[in-house]
Amino acid sequence: MDATSLWAESTTTASACLAHPFLTGIANGSLDRAAFEHYVGQDAFFLDAFAKAYALGIARSPDAPTMRRFKTLLDGAMDEQALHGAYAERWGVDLHPRPTAATRAYTDFLLATAALEPLHLLAAAMTPCMRLYAWLGQQMREDTDPDSAYREWVETYSSDDFEQLATAMDDLLDDLVTLEAPVDEGRLRQTYTTAMELEWAFFDSAHRSGAALPG
């Protein structure tokens, strides 16, 4: 089982994310700004945990080449944090919010996997975020209103640079599965599926929680 087959099994969840009103609102510009600002704050909290998971991957790597691959991905996460910093400066977003239940569920899952599980399961927990965001950006690119206040979000995740990071994560997952073989394919599939489901829950929570805030 590889990254391609795991993604293929997750297309129903990916399509549900793409059709979610939070994402359609980003594309057509109709998303309430309070909802997007809430999302940015929650995603900043998530990215802190994501970066820590990469760092744990570096610390637990069996060799220098694997360490370098995790380091490259960590650098990409730090660059993504800079995008949130730009939103914070522009719109006064709080980048250190109290996490929602959905955010905490995702970060707890991610960090527990990073600390306690084999490296191939860490990669399986992290790959869905990268592959899903790259796919969403690419799917949304042509349909995004040029005047949408959130076009920069789509441009970031539809970029060739982000696709390269997503591909690097896919490749790392495949190589770690081979390195740590034999692996429990049931656990591998469940880890990947859980991360995908947590992605949908994260978008849904941001949409519902943010929309409830005063504009």
Structure description:
The chain has ten helices and no strands. The longest helix has 28 residues, at 33-60. Helix 6 runs antiparallel to helix 10. 80% of the residues lie in helices and 0% in strands. The chain has helices spanning 3-8, 11-19, 21-28, 33-60, 64-91, 101-116, 119-140, 151-157, 160-179, 185-211. The radius of gyration is 17 Å and the shape is globular. With 215 residues, the chain is mainly alpha-helical. The mean pLDDT is 92.
Question: How is this fold's topology laid out?
Answer:
Blueprint lengths: L2 H6 L2 H9 L1 H8 L4 H28 L3 H28 L9 H16 L2 H22 L10 H7 L2 H20 L5 H27 L4
Helix pairs in contact: 2-10, 4-5, 4-6, 4-10, 5-9, 6-7, 6-10, 7-8, 7-9, 7-10
- Estimate the helix proportion, in percent: over 70%
Number of helices: 10
Name the shape in a single word: globular
What radius of gyration results from the CA coordinates? 17 Å
- Strand % is under 5%
What string, H for helix and E for strand, traces the elements in order?
Answer: HHHHHHHHHH
Short description:
With 215 residues, this protein is mainly α. It is 80% helix and 0% strand.
